[in-house]
Amino acid sequence: MKAKINALLIKAIDLLYKDNDFSIEIVKTKSEMHGDWSSNIAMIVAKKKGENPKELAQKIIKLITNEDWLEKVEIAGPGFLNFFLTKQGNLNYLKNLLRDKKSYFPFEESNKKKYFN
Known about the structure:
CATH superfamily: Arginyl tRNA synthetase N-terminal domain
CATH architecture: 2-Layer Sandwich
Strand order of the largest sheet: 1-2-4-3
Number of domains: 1
CATH class: Alpha Beta
Order of helices and strands: HEEHHEEH
Number of strands: 4
Structural class: alpha+beta
Shape: globular
Number of helices: 4
CATH topology: Gyrase A, domain 2
Strand content: 15-25%
Helix content: 40-55%
Largest sheet: 4 strands, antiparallel
């Protein structure tokens, strides 16, 4: 899901500035009221371009295409973009996590006595 959001943001920034030399941070939110994923890209680009981050966030939202997995995108605080996934989008994200061959809690002989908090 992170890759899909990243692609949307890169496309929007490229349309606005013909420049995608920005570090995009996308994180899973800690609260449902802030959506499922969040990015600070509007603040990063606005600072570099000398623009207002909230205004830039609005421009980015207008350029984000309608995706079947994306319910809405909101602006929060000084210019964070909060991404709300549809139920199907969340379900697909979970399915992909389960299908991923990477182990999230790898077992190694050296850590067999460690406890999870």
